[in-house]
Amino acid sequence: MSEQEIHVGERGGGTIAAEPNAAPSRPQRIVLTLVAGFILLILGLFLSLITGIFPISYAEVLEVLFSSNPNPMLVEVVYHTRMPFALDMLLLGGCLAVSGTLLQLRTANRFASPTLTGLMPGAMVGLCVVLLLGMDIDSFGSMALCIAGAVFGGFIVFTLNKVRFIRGRSAGVHLFMIGFIIDVVLRSASGFIVLLGEYGEYQQEWAISQGGWGIREGSFTFWLALLTILVVCSVFAFPKQLSPLYIPFAIVLTAVTVWACGTIGYIGLIVPYFMRCMIGNRPRLLILGSVFWGGGLLMLAKVISAKINEPVGFPVTPVLACIGIPFLIFMVWIEWKKKLPA
After folding, report:
1. 63, 137, 199, 260: most buried by Cβ count inside 10 Å?
2. Rounded Cα–Cα distance for residues 55 and 222 (Å)
3. Is residue 18 part of a domain?
4. Region of residue 12 (left: phi > 0; alpha: psi -120 to 50; beta: else)
């Protein structure tokens, strides 16, 4: 199978052709999409550098970046505080978008995303168990529990998805219904676990994980960057040979992002869907575009959330929901109108 062909998904021991939500690829549209994503990424990065409690103008940021003798205080703020945080957001957004892209390519379902396949809420349950047990949040054991939770959530969704209880509707609507129900159940389980524990020193981590306020401090950045580079390079080099590993890759990427900052919704759904509509089913280009658009969108959403209720800020998930919820309703409406033959 060539890179330009549509990947097949596996279900019930057989194979099904991917849904043709991706329009035929046109070189001009592909180039425009990738260039626009790169511009969005640069814009989000630049706005992240000027946004914060300490006001910095556009000219001052340019001075820090390009001047040979910048203000030492501005250098400290830009390079040691805001730049690392912005790059973390780029990594997180890119990871979630790549995870959703891998899921959609492998399952041939446009609703496949870290949230609706149970990976993200399952990893959230794993993180809640980590904090309940008082484990070191930066340990490999805590990461392993998040991965185990993602596997558990994904297993439930994919198993229930084999039972066709909605007759005459597309696979997308079916996965949406199953994924939405399991998401609610697992998030409720996370809330129940929260009620069981006395958090003490882990109060900040609980708030971040449940509310999406930001990124906790820790050593996760190195592992997140390493995993992202390994997955992206592997899929770039062997898109066809590694297609059976797309779902394990998505599980690990999703679990590590939850381990790093809690749950961030919608990016893993809307970015892959948009990229496949614009680019088609080309794994290499989809991965590259997902990093651009996912990272840029999350950085931009974080800038908007920081501007709301300054200087305290605002959770980033509700900002993303302003885009994600109407987009999801539109997707469900389009899919619901499609009736399958009896």
Report:
1. 260
2. 29
3. no
4. left
Q: What was the pLDDT predicted at 20?
A: 45
311 in a domain, yes or no?
yes
Whether residue 331 has pLDDT greater than 60 = yes
Strand partners, 169: 339
Instruction: Say which CATH number the domain at 322 has.
Output: 1.10.3470.10
> Tens digit of pLDDT for each residue in 102-161?
999 999 888 899 999 999 999 999 988 887 887 777 778 888 999 999 999 999 999 988
Neighbours of 284 (CB within 10 A): 14
Do 63 and 70 touch, CB atoms closer than 8 A?
yes
Cis peptide before 27 (omega within 30 of 0): no
Question: Is 134 part of any domain?
Answer: yes
- Number of neighbours of residue 144 by Cβ within 10 angstroms: 14
What range does the domain containing 199 cover?
A: 25-336
What are residue 130's phi and psi, to 5 degrees? -60, -50
Residue that has been written with the tokens 């794994």 in this structure: 283
Residue 151: its pLDDT value, please? 96
Residue 286 lies in a domain: yes
Number of domains the chain is built from: 1
pLDDT on residue 214? 45
DSSP state of 296: H
Which of 72, 50, 103 is closest to 273 using CA atoms? 103
CB-based burial label for 306 (10 Å; 0-12, 13-18, 19+):
buried
pLDDT tens sequence across 183-234:
999 988 887 887 776 554 454 444 444 444 344 544 567 777 888 888 888 9
Helix/strand/coil for 314: coil
